[in-house]
Amino acid sequence: MTDTTENMIDAAPDNLEPHFEPMGWHHWPAFPWLSYQFRRGLGETQEGGGAISEHFLAASRMIPGDKESWHREYMVMAEQNRARGQEADASGHVRTAMNCYLRAAEHFRQAEFHLEPTDPRRLPTFEQMEACSHGFLKHLNPPGEVVDIPYEPGKPICGYFVRAPYPGDRLPVLICFGGLDSIKDEMWFMQAHGALQRGISVLMVDLPGQGGTLRRHGLTARADTEVPVGACIDWLLMRGDVDPDRIACCGSSMGGYYAARAGCYEPRLAACIAHGAIWDVHEMWGDKDDSFGLAMHIRWVMGAGSMAEAMETAKAFRLDGHIDNMRCPFLVLHGGHDVLTVKAATQTYEAAIAAGVDATLRLTTPEETGAEHCQHDNPTIGQELLADWLADRFGIDQRALMKTGWSPLA
Questions:
Q1: 253 an active-site residue?
Q2: Which 8-state DSSP code applies to residue 318?
Q3: Active site residue: 201, 253, 291, 306, which one?
């Protein structure tokens, strides 16, 4: 593992020219948060989230460090792809339409990302992204489903269910969710695509504090994530196409805490994946104030008026005292040069092992790429690692499987 300074995502490197570092491409080194998000977008191109040239063209038109120009230029790319997708759809050019909708969804996600929660453009931009995701999902075989998981009265968990394109009455399922700022629509690029390729159906959801569940219903994050994950399992068990003995969950970034916490108290989970481990949210961010680059997201997600208030809430978001209760197999997949700390991964893994958990730790290296937080610089390798681990745990023979599918997800 390559050593890295812990929790220094907001620190500019010494070299302020565009360059490559162990965790990936730094486009605007003087603006590390924008560089990070741009790197995230670049990585998602290889899973269908835009084209490399589109991201660079948008960046070339931005004012470095200016979030308004970021929104403007990603809206241009999003609207172009959506219009082309709608035209292709109307002409029966379904594969082109799907490609365009998926690219447009990623660009709308980028355009929405830096807007303040109270900005009147935020929810409409988010819902344009969702509409493009829906356009993509409807053409899958079998078609993806837009679902509301019953949760609080009038406030469901927003999600997408996609059945794996392989025969079988009841298939295994991965519940996919993000973290602080990642959403169900982004899970295609980070988790879901790889699971589907290996015969595992997916339920991509916005837990409380995420995506549509936060934006439309105002539901903020909660530490006891076994409750919303349990609601997702309740819903899955009502379906006739789900294997009740092979349901897993995977959380990315802060979702690494969410997934692990759910795995500690939800006995119906057959496996659990922390895709970017978090041992203690307060320990990670407790010294950050309202000038921190993620402060807006943290306050919003935690339902707080200030970082101080958010960090008080965050004290409950810790695995210490809970990990002893985990009984299912547990994968910790973590970037070996993760600027949001590598220590969290080793803490989580070592505590799990000490508690007798069947735990696996996989740190990705700069040499193989994918060393960034959640493998944002190469999400394909992240999907390969987590989905192969899960397929093995579920007893899936991939050689045999590939001879049976009717809609290979290339």
A1: yes
A2: B
A3: 253
SS3 326: coil
More confident residue, 23 or 303: 303
Residue 352 has pLDDT above 70, yes or no: yes
Query: Which residues face 161 on adjacent strands?
Result: 145, 203
Give 188's DSSP letter. Answer: I
Fill in the DSSP letter of residue 11: S
Q: In this structure, are residues 66 and 106 in contact, taking their beta carbons and an 8 Å threshold?
A: no
- Burial label for 310, CB within 10 Å (0-12, 13-18, 19+), is buried
Instruction: Select from 177, 317, 354, 370 the least CA-distant residue to 362.
Output: 370
Check if the beta carbon of residue 111 is closer than 8 Å to that of residue 71: yes
**Using an 8 Å Cβ cutoff, are 200 and 176 in contact?**
no
* β partners of residue 25: 20
Cα–Cα distance between 278 and 375 in angstroms, integer?
Answer: 15
Nearest Cα residue to 49 out of 96, 103, 128:
103
The number of residues making up the chain comes to: 410
Query: Phi-psi category of 158—alpha, beta or left, where left has phi over 0 and alpha has psi -120 to 50?
Result: beta
Give, in order, the Cα–Cα distances in Å from 110 to each of 60, 105, 113, 139, 307.
15, 9, 5, 24, 24
> What is the per-residue pLDDT across 43-65, written as a single tens digit (0 to 9) for each?
999 999 999 999 999 999 999 99
pTM: predicted TM-score of the whole model, two decimal places: 0.96
The Cα-based distances of 320 to 115, 280, 285, 313 in angstroms read 34, 8, 16, 16
